[in-house]
Design goal:
15 helices; 386 residues
Length: 386
């Protein structure tokens, strides 16, 4: 039986608790709330991370908040309002658009403060879509996961700077620690993926979706012109069977079957990164933050990222990694050639700079502390006006 909470009860609302940056951050914040003496509630449609959430002392409430159906969204207002009242919730924190609509009105009905986290730029090509997205700026304060997203919120939605709090995503430095990865874990992956000894490994972690830039990487590997490397595209297709087939055809059409391999999934990303000689983020659209390159730098790996979005904040170009123009296979090939020519001393110096950079700016502990500070700020403002 967990000890009685002495701090506020915080309700986080998101569609599901499956694997992903939003979901992982939700669990991290819930743990921090509990460790600080508060009570952490999470409402979602469920998923694989529920057990981990409950292990850290938080509580999960299963509700259909993943649905975008207007009637379900409407009914979720009453469901969330009842939850807020029955559990004496002090603050409601929404992390995604569909549940944010229900959470916003539930908070209004119950007189609780409402907070949002802006996790991406979202598609806003039509007036209707922009109106739908705008629920994410209705929080008393808006958390942006990077300066890039903060600027987007201010410029595109007209949110005053004083209402925006930039809190970068945090890397789990216990998990992404090169000293914590055993040789056995690395060997196990190398064996499973049939990587020859001393074969340079180029890695792109990320789900198979067009904007993640897998086609750009394949073209860059062709331009690199080396047969003594392995390129691993690691990530599930999540039902994008046609795109996966396109990638496979592209690999065969360029005679790269022995060099480029698609790995459906990997449950040990830290070990995979230790196996890599270079980790790539080739996204053709701007990343809101750049979790892959942050985690890779924490492991001391050389990184190449696209020169836009949050990656500009996560990578110090020329010091902790390289930035290349979007959708430019030739520039990516040149950067790959430069990285693969680094000697052991150059790699060690880069690793030290990269690890120190991530530990100084992008730790999970910093993300949690800053988020709890925003909770305190919002609750104090609410108490003053009550």
């Amino acid at each position: 039986m967990p000890p009685a909470a002495t701090g506020p009860t915080i309700l986080q609302v998101l569609p599901r608790l499956e694997t992903g940056g939003v979901e992982r951050g939700t669990v991290d914040i819930a743990r921090a709330i509990v460790e600080a003496g508060g009570r952490a509630l999470v409402a979602s449609a469920g998923g694989g991370l529920v057990r981990e959430l409950e292990r850290c002392g938080a509580e999960h409430v299963t509700l259909p908040v993943h649905s975008k159906q207007p009637w379900t969204v409407y009914r979720n207002v009453a469901r969330l309002a009842e939850l807020v009242r029955s559990e004496d919730v002090h603050l409601v924190h929404a992390r995604s658009r569909a549940p944010a609509w229900s959470a916003c009105y539930a908070a209004r009905q119950t007189g609780r403060p409402f907070l949002t986290t802006f996790h991406g730029t979202y598609s806003g090509k039509s007036a209707l879509k922009r109106a739908y997205n705008a629920v994410m700026i209705r929080g008393e304060l808006v958390i942006a996961i990077s300066e890039f997203i903060g600027l987007h919120v201010m410029e595109f939605y007209g949110v005053p700077r004083e209402r925006v709090r930039v809190i970068h995503r945090g890397v789990d430095l216990d998990l992404f620690d090169p000293d914590a990865v055993s040789a056995e874990r690395i060997i196990q992956l190398a064996t499973a993926w049939r990587i020859p000894d001393d074969m340079p490994v180029i890695m792109l972690p990320g789900r198979l979706t067009r904007w993640k830039g897998q086609t750009v990487v394949i073209e860059a590997i062709e331009k690199l012109g080396r047969r003594d490397v392995r390129c691993l595209l690691i990530g599930p297709d999540q039902g994008r069977v046609r795109y996966r087939g396109e990638l496979e055809d592209m690999i065969r059409g360029r005679g790269l079957e022995d060099i480029v391999h698609i790995i459906d999934d990997c449950r040990d990303i830290p070990a995979a990164m230790m196996l890599a000689d270079v980790v790539i983020s080739a996204s053709t659209d701007p990343e809101a933050f750049g979790r892959v390159v942050a985690e890779a730098q924490a492991m001391g790996r050389p990184v190449i990222a696209t020169d836009h979005g949050g990656a500009r904040e996560v990578v110090i170009a020329g010091e902790t990694g390289w930035l290349t123009p979007p959708a430019d296979p030739a520039a990516l090939a040149n950067a790959l050639d430069r990285v693969l020519q680094l000697d052991s001393d150059g790699r060690e110096q880069l690793a030290r700079r990269a690890i120190a950079h991530v530990r100084a700016k992008f730790s999970r502990e910093q993300m949690c502390a800053r988020t709890l500070s925003v909770y305190d700020e919002v609750l104090a403002r609410h108490a003053e006006t009550a």
